[in-house]
């Protein structure tokens, strides 16, 4: 009976591990997307700041 209990617990733990691994992959993908978005926003901010500085010099 002990072997059956251990096998059952092992199967449950493996399922939990697989779920955790899937979540890690999803988080990594989301993090990559967010990083790309942040980089794009930084570039846009730099462009806007340069434009604002140009207008301040003109005014």
Q: Mean pLDDT, rounded to whole units?
A: 97
**Which range best describes the helical content: under 10%, 10-25%, 25-40%, 40-55%, 55-70% or over 70%?**
over 70%
- Poorly predicted sequence stretches spanning 5 or more consecutive residues: none
Helix and strand content put the structural class at mainly alpha
Secondary structure: elements and pairs:
Elements: H1 2-58
Structure characterization notes:
- The chain has a domain at 27-59.
- 0% of the residues are buried.
- It contains one helix and no strands.
- The chain has 59 residues and is an all-alpha fold.
- The radius of gyration is 25 Å and the shape is rod-shaped.
- The longest helix is centred in the middle third of the chain and has 57 residues, at 2-58.
Q: Main traits of this protein?
A:
59 residues; single chain; mainly alpha; 1 helix
In short:
The protein has 59 residues and is an all-alpha fold. It is built from one helix and no strands.
